[in-house]
Design goal:
With 376 residues, the protein is an alpha/beta fold. The protein folds into two domains: 14-72, DNA polymerase, domain 1 (Orthogonal Bundle), CATH 1.10.150; 77-368, Aldolase class I (TIM Barrel, Alpha-Beta Barrel). It contains eleven helices and 14 strands. It has a ten-stranded mixed sheet, with helices on one face. The protein has a two-stranded parallel ribbon with strand order 1-2. It has a two-stranded antiparallel ribbon with strand order 7-8. Helix 11 (319-331) links the parallel strand 13 (299-305) and strand 14. Mean pLDDT is 90; it is low at 1-11 and 363-376. It binds S-adenosyl-L-homocysteine. S-adenosyl-L-homocysteine (SAH) binds at residues 128-130, 172, 176, 207-209, 229, 273, 275, 304, 306-307, 349-350. The site of S-adenosyl-L-homocysteine has 16 residues, from strand 10 and strand 12.
C-alpha cells in the first residue's frame, strides 16, 4: 500500500521519516497532543506504509490537516530494482541532491537480511572495497537510512511470496556507520521499535572498521550486534588494508572490543569480518595470528570471499584456502561462518552499482574525530 505521492523532493518541512518515537513524542507535545500519537503515526508510516496524512484515520481531522501543512513523509526515489536468480534483490535509491545509494536484500533459509547504507560513499578507503574507491560525499539523514527499510518492506510485500520479509538488518552497505553516529542510532531505534519494524537486538548488526571512541558510545546506547571488519591480525598488514588502523591500531581496537563485550549479556559475541584475499591475508600463519588476537573475546568469525571488481588488484582466495583457513579457526574452537557470494548477476557486491560519486572528502580531514552523541 505504498502511496503514490511519495517521491523525492527537496525537503522544506519536517520530514517525519527523520523522527524516532522520542522525536515524534517531542513534536506532538509541542502541539499539545498526547504522546501516544507518536506510536500511532509510527505505525501508519512504517507498518502500513501510508504517507498520505488523510489516510491516518485514528487522528483527528484537525491534526491530519496540520501534519499535512507542516510536515512531510518523503523517501528517496527507487531508480533501479533488480532481482537476482538466487533471490537477492538490489535497489538503487536516488536522494534529493542527485546522490545515489544502494540497498541489498539477501534471502537465506530462515531469514531475509537487508544490507543498508549509512553514507554516500565512504571516507575510509579500505584497499579492497569498491565503495572506498569512489570517495566520500556525505552522511545520510535518518530518513534516508530508514527509507531503505521502508522501501524494502513495501516492495517485498508487493512480491506476494511467502518468506520474502526483512527479518534482519545489517549496516554493511556503503559507508562507515559509526562516522554517521547520531543518524545511525536514530534509524536503528526506529528499526527496533515495536510500533515500526520491531526487530530484536539480535537481528540488527552495526558493522564498523573500528572507530574506537564511537564503539564505546554505542555500547552505552544500543545493545544490537556489532561486527568489526578486521581483515588482518597484525598492524602492518591492517594498515595497508584498512587505513583507519593507523588512527586506531589493533591494540586499541581489541581493547574497545573487550570493553564492548563486558557491557553486553553473557551470550553476546562480537562478529569479526575477514575478507580473504589471495596471497595477502589468507595463510595458515595469518589464521593463527587471528586466533591469538581474539583470544578471550567471545567471537564469531565471518570469513568473506573477496568480491572482485575491476581494477581492485586483488584475487579471491581459492576454495581450498578458505577451507583450510576456516578449519584452523574451527579446530581451535572458534565459531566461524563462511559467507557465500550472492547476487553476482546483479552486481550485488557493495558499491558496484552506484558508479562514480562526487568525492567531497578532503584527505587531511578524513579521520577527524567522529562527532558522536551530539543530538541524542
Ligand atoms: N564501514 C563498515 C561497513 C561497510 S563494509 C565496515 O567496514 O565494517 C561491510 C563489509 O563488507 C566489511 O566487512 C567489508 O570489509 C566488506 N567488503 C567490502 N568490500 C568487499 C569486497 N570487495 N568483497 C568482499 N567483502 C567486502
Amino acid at each position: 500500500m505504498r502511496s503514490a505521492n511519495v517521491q523525492d523532493k527537496t525537503t522544506s518541512g519536517l520530514n517525519l521519516l527523520d523522527l524516532d518515537r522520542q522525536g515524534l513524542e517531542d513534536y506532538f507535545s509541542g502541539l499539545e497532543e498526547k504522546s501516544f500519537r507518536a506510536g500511532q503515526v509510527l505505525k501508519w508510516i512504517h507498518q502500513k506504509g501510508v504517507s498520505d496524512f488523510q489516510q491516518m484515520t485514528n487522528l483527528s481531522k484537525v491534526l491530519r490537516d496540520r501534519l499535512q501543512r507542516d510536515t512531510e513523509i518523503t523517501a528517496p526515489e527507487v531508480v533501479y530494482d533488480a532481482i537476482s536468480e538466487d533471490g537477492t534483490r538490489k535497489w538503487l535509491l536516488q536522494l534529493h541532491d542527485g546522490n545515489r545509494i544502494e540497498t541489498v536484500y539477501i534471502p537465506e533459509d530462515d531469514r531475509g537480511t537487508l544490507c543498508v547504507s549509512s553514507q554516500v560513499g565512504c571516507a575510509l578507503d579500505c584497499s579492497f572495497c569498491s565503495t572506498g574507491r569512489q570517495g566520500f560525499n556525505r552522511n545520510l539523514t535518518t530518513a534516508e537510512i530508514i527509507s531503505q527499510v521502508w522501501h524494502a518492506t513495501r516492495l517485498l510485500d508487493e512480491e506476494k511470496k511467502p518468506g520474502r520479509k526483512v527479518t534482519n538488518v545489517v549496516l554493511m552497505g556503503m559507508g562507515e556507520p559509526l562516522l554517521n553516529f547520531d543518524h545511525v542510532v536514530r534509524a536503528v531505534r526506529i528499526m527496533m521499535d515495536d510500533y515500526a519494524y520491531g526487530l530484536s537486538k539480535r537481528r540488527v548488526t552495526i558493522s564498523t572498521a573500528g572507530v574506537v571512541p564511537a564503539m564505546d558510545r554505542l555500547a552505552e546506547l544500543l545493545d544490537t550486534r556489532l561486527a568489526v571488519s578486521l581483515h588482518a591480525a597484525n598492524d602492518e598488514l591492517r594498515n595497508s588494508l584498512v587505513p583507519l588502523n593507523k588512527k586506531y591500531p589493533l591494540k586499541e581496537l581489541m581493547a574497545a572490543c573487550r570493553r564492548f563485550v563486558v557491557r553486553q549479556n553473557s551470550r553476546f559475541r562480537i562478529t569479526f569480518e575477514y575478507v580473504l584475499l589471495d596471497g595477502v591475508n589468507d595463510s595458515d600463519q595469518h589464521a593463527r595470528e587471528l586466533l591469538k588476537l581474539v583470544e578471550g573475546i567471545p567471537t564469531l568469525v565471518n570469513l568473506i570471499p573477496f568480491n572482485p571488481f575491476e581494477g581492485s588488484g586483488y584475487r579471491t582466495s581459492p576454495r581450498s584456502r578458505v577451507d583450510r583457513f576456516n578449519s584452523i579457526l574451527a579446530d581451535a574452537g572458534v565459531t566461524t561462518v563462511v559467507r557465500r557470494t550472492r547476487g553476482d548477476d546483479i552486481d550485488a557486491a557493495c558499491g558496484q552499482l552506484v558508479g562514480q560519486i562526487e568525492d567531497k572528502s578532503r584527505r587531511h580531514r578524513r579521520f577527524e574525530e567522529p562527532r558522536i552523541g551530539m543530538q541524542l
